[in-house]
Write a structure and sequence with these properties.
The protein is α/β, with parallel strands linked by helices. The chain folds into 3 domains: 209 residues, Alpha-Beta Complex (Spore Coat Polysaccharide Biosynthesis Protein SpsA, Chain A); 94 residues; 107 residues, no CATH class. The chain has 14 helices and 12 strands. Helix 2 links the parallel strand 2 and strand 3. It is globular, with a radius of gyration of 33 Å.
């Protein structure tokens, strides 16, 4: 079986040389290498031309995203097996042969993926599974590779960083869905489509590679969260039947939103934007559901209701302070402490609350030690019978006062912290409202232009 390996490259010259060197060293007898350069500006394409003339180079004029770039390579491929490979990988000896062998021994297998390790040998991926919210997780993630993942098995999906698909399966489902641009969930979606078409998706441990996992979209910005969860929702809305969406997904999603940790308001706003995106994009999703699930267009209202229900979840519960009150003061956004704050005053009281017995000294020459000894003896007598109980009583009173003041201080700090946290929460929601209004305005302009075009 001839194999076509498609290496998608975008501004990854620091990784691309190692990737292609290891790939071209594979001992599989019949394979071609297609490098799709996704509009790089760092000289990656020139590197391929200069150092790897064996590879076929396709230059995209711009970045088409993960799905779009790979689809260019898939259309150009001539192999019976087509393999997607990220530029930040280094395949190990026998990797390609193991993928092709797994596909050749069972015609029912449509997609196969292997074991991905981090550079330190820790497992990154040994097949994947999907939960009720559509979240994809990797088997073995960040575990030591001690042979516990050395058995082949069927999985929900394999990572698009390195997967192989047969020509038959590709013919049944077509290319990757470019609606997931720029990245995330294309591989999960493709695997689900292939399985729905009657093929198996399998993990094989004999195909091993190192994945450096260098991505242009690994940040945790608001935009990145929007893209990731927008694509997670696209996957769920394409593949989940309506009963599963209503009975499993919506309750699980709502519970997740309502129980986000402190600082989760940014994620909530990203989710609201993702829900809005799919409300405006229902026509496309309904077309996919009809194609994949055979569902009629009558589901539009139910899908819209589910998305609108989730958009009403706006957690405003106060964020509690997890550590001592000093931890709140380390927050750069916390109010400036006055020159003489209750915290400073309490600090002094904590150091001075216990009354100490006076130590007598005398500087009189010769008789000084005798005078001091006499004073100590006299003080001991009076202290034993009267003064010491008073000191003990006063010390206990002081300790009680400090305890009361500390409780008041903690409540004041918590109230101020909650007030400022609530302000930041509302600021995030207000900012997102502005972004959503802009998106709605753009959609209205588009609809108006469409109506004008129809009425001409």
């Amino acid at each position: 079986m001839k194999a076509s390996v498609i290496v998608l490259s975008w501004n990854g010259m620091e990784y691309l040389g190692d990737c292609l060197s290891a790939l071209l060293s594979q001992d599989y007898p019949d394979f071609e290498v297609i490098v799709v350069d996704n509009g790089s500006s760092d000289g990656s394409a020139d590197l391929v031309t200069a150092r790897f003339p064996q590879a076929r180079l396709i230059r995209n004029g711009r970045n088409l995203g993960f799905a779009g770039g790979n689809n260019v390579g898939l259309q150009a491929a001539t192999g019976d097996v087509m393999v997607l490979l990220n530029q930040d990988t280094v395949v190990q000896p026998g990797w390609l042969g193991a993928l092709v062998e797994a596909l050749s021994i069972d015609s029912g297998i449509g997609i196969v993926g292997g074991k991905a390790l981090y550079p330190d040998g820790i497992v990154q991926h040994a097949g994947g599974y999907v939960n009720e919210r559509g979240e994809g997780s990797h088997y073995g993630y960040q575990q030591q590779d001690a042979g516990q993942f050395d058995q082949a098995r069927d999985v929900d999906y394999v990572t698009g960083a390195a997967l192989a698909i047969t020509r038959r399966a590709f013919g049944a489902v077509g290319g990757l869905d470019e609606g997931f641009a720029p990245a995330y969930y294309e591989d999960v979606d493709w695997c689900y489509q292939v399985r729905r078409a009657g093929f198996r998706v399998v993990y094989t441990p004999q195909a091993v590679l190192i994945h450096k996992e260098a991505s242009a979209v690994t940040d945790v910005s608001h935009e990145r969260m929007c893209v990731f969860h927008r694509n997670r929702l696209r996957f769920v809305l394409k593949h989940w039947l309506l009963d599963r969406l209503v009975d499993e997904f919506v309750p699980a999603e709502r519970t997740w939103l309502e129980n986000l940790d402190e600082g989760g308001e940014r994620l909530v706003t990203a989710m609201h934007r993702a829900y809005l995106h799919h409300l405006l994009d229902l026509a496309d999703l309904l077309a996919w559901r009809r194609k994949l699930l055979g569902i009629s267009l009558d589901e539009a209202d139910a899908l819209a209701d589910a998305l609108l229900t989730l958009r009403t979840v706006v957690p405003l519960k106060p964020a509690r302070i997890a550590s001592e009150q000093e931890a709140a003061l380390e927050d750069p956004g916390f109010a400036t402490v006055p020159e003489r704050s209750p915290v400073q005053t309490l600090g002094e009281l904590r150091q001075r609350w216990a009354i100490q017995e006076h130590e007598f000294h005398s500087h009189v020459p010769i008789f000084g030690p005798l005078i001091a000894a006499f004073r100590r003896q006299w003080n001991r007598v009076s202290t034993e019978w009267y003064v010491r109980p008073i000191i003990q009583q006063q010390s206990e009173f002081n300790a009680g006062v400090i305890t009361v003041l500390e409780n008041i201080e903690n409540r004041l700090i918590q109230q101020e912290y909650d007030r400022q946290r609530l302000g930041r929460v509302l600021a995030e929601y207000t900012s997102e409202n502005g972004r959503e209004l802009g998106e709605l305005a753009r959609e209205l302009r588009r609809l108006r232009a469409s109506l004008e075009e129809v009425t001409r």
